[in-house]
Records
---
Amino acid sequence: MLYYGGMSAKKIIFLNQKGGVGKTTTAVNIGSALAVKGYRVLLVDMDSQGNLSSSVSADTTRPGVYEVIAGTADFSAVQTTPVKNLFCLSGGINNAGLSVELIDLKDREYYLKRALKPAESDYDFIFVDCPPALDLVTMNALAFAEYVIIPMQCEFFAMEGLNLLMKTISSVKKKINPRLSVLGIVFTMYSKRSKLNNEVVEDISSYFKDLVFKTLIPRNVRVSEAPSHGLPVNAYESFCSGTKAYNDLAEEVLKRVTK
């Protein structure tokens, strides 16, 4: 299936208040897998570190999402990437003060939603990579989104953090964005030889059942190397286990959003 042409984009955010769980990597690589299938995908980098931007060779010194929210730039700020159909609205250090700047403003949770509204008919998917915090920037992303994808590592405290995140999403759904729902939980950096990894996957899968994606993203050197070359993994090494896993995960995402 190709570009919807004028229909509103599917709006998905990638969220986990814990850092280092593969959130940015998952956003970039699902986006790239969908772009290769012919879907137009816009990646929006809300993190002040700008890791999503650099993962697709976007220039973080150019105007990006901060300037679009502030009204000092329009969507000519969107940058192309090395992958056809994959685009980026960059983030970076300017995002660092966004929560503070928004705090005293009226309707402060809706600035991202209003800023991105004009772009919705130009893309099939808009992916937002959130910072690792449940702050006002993240609240703006939650107010914008239809769906949340939660990347997680298979570690001891995973369930504890996940319960807090689910409570936050439920609260936002009630008070700010009734259309919001969790599209799924995806396990990253998985090792089938690790007893702990397997126990965590089993425990969370039994508790959250259908929310957990079947595809497990393995620990893979090529996935780790690709961002340093400014490339998604499928553009860096098309036949590695990481590329296959993200292709499979993209298929799962497609099935869930088109139900």
---
Amino acid sequence: MTLITFVIPYFNEEQYLGATLESLAAQTDRRFSLILVDNKSTDRSAEIARQTAADFSDIPVTLMSEANAGKLFALRRGIDAVETPLLGTMDADTIYPPDYVAKTLALFASNPECSSVMAFDALGTAVAGSQWVQVQLWPNHCHTGGYAQNFRTAAIKSAGQYDPEIWPYVLEDHEIFHRVLEYGPTVYAKDHVCRTSDRRDDRTDVSWTIPERLLYKLLSQGAMDWFFHTFLARRFEARGLSNIRLREQHWQSGGANQSAE
């Protein structure tokens, strides 16, 4: 029985998508399905998705496309099609260990009141001690990204899921975390990890500033609506940090950005 669907939006990921899908093909728990959403790729990404999906003989794979450029639109299209009780978002440049699905499902099963289960980007088999301390200090804050967020489908859809009318900026994974948190607590586990690509090491041009990050940590869940939709939205708008900026792939073409369209 399929319990969870993973939505993977992708745009020009021919260098990474195949390895990501191979890591999912090696999962020990097979109770999952995949929705792959091509967001106007101009390289071989869609071809790789089709070829690799053919090898998932026991895993349902749905191939979709989204004509509106931007990760928010691709995520929304994929999530609208989810029918399983649980869903997860993944990134096309991330490697998931063989027990990723098993741990995700086990954490949901042992925490029936939770709305979400989060995993970490970690080099080893457990998150670094310093990051785990932050989780203990701020358990109701987001400590991971869209590459490893898992939700109860009813909760994320009730929260309005990804919607440019609600949040059209970067940090969509943090903003939606707090909307979903209204439907139940989140669960972290120190050994629930995956590994993103090294190209993410510098995202300062599409992220928040250190003062903004510090303020986020200091505020309670009750202040998050103001923090995101009044304070941070105004600042992100002034800096041009719309979500489509995530399509700027600086590692391509000798450092030149790929077109946002």
---
Amino acid sequence: MALGLSIESAKQFLGSDFEQYRQTLNTALHTDEPFLETINNYVLGSRGKEIRPVLSLLTSRCCGSLSFEGYCVAAATEMLHTATLMHDDVADGASFRRGALSVAAMFSVPAAVLTGDFWLARSLNVINTNCGREIIRNFDLAIQTMSESELLQLDKAGSLDTTEKDYLKIIYGKTAALFVASLRSAAIVSGASEAAVAAVEAYAKNLGLAFQIRDDILDYSPGLDTGKTAGADLRERKITLPLICALDNYPEKAPEVISKIGMIESVLGQKTTEKEELVIAEVTDFVLNGGGLEGATQKLQSYTDAAIQAISALPASQARSMLEGFAEFAGTRGR
């Protein structure tokens, strides 16, 4: 099942609820400041697939019914996610996002930082104004965890001693934390029982981990048409699961491999040298020939299976089937 098909099918299934979410999002982002409104319209015009708000809306449907609070949770999720992308593009020196110029490249770096701040503030305003304290706590914890994980990743890029435990902590914060905050909140505002909320939380955690692991696998898959530049993680000195698995298989080669990665010193956003590109190619070959992708894929499958199992106790419905389908997709996309 292709991502585009599953996303579009889910949006069609959600129907007017998806349109209500969109209206809530647009209303929350409205501003009388012309320059900011121009940037907002640019970002909204090049928005991604909106996987996170779709999952949030499906969760509300799965656990009960959608209400205005459910639309607010979905809108806050999209605003928070987009804010982090704008900030990430500044930190990474990225000129493009989703095939279009990033906000930093299209307008300016200060504009990207400040617009990201605005989207973050509006996401918190939406849930603070319309949702209860537990929902506020969910998103507050997600923001803290996301910030901490990015700093941990930055620190580990310097020390080059990332363990699998470190890696899982990093990707939980980078990706899974927002999945948990969004879907847990969606279940709560739909009136779900404590058991159902716990099931959704387990689904969200495992799904978020699976999504990030798959992205990290794709980084070592140059033969796939994924839209992701192969080797991007190594260019940033990130030690991700495929490399960790290969090093586990061949621990005697770890000092040599880590030493090679330490030779990558290019500043983010600047072109790597020929020597650095050679290092990236050598480490990539080590991962491909050392069972790194196979080991990471096996672990990925365990998380997708756990996500599906987590919501198996929820009442059977089309919404639950779609949530299961997204987990299955996370385990197969890019193959």
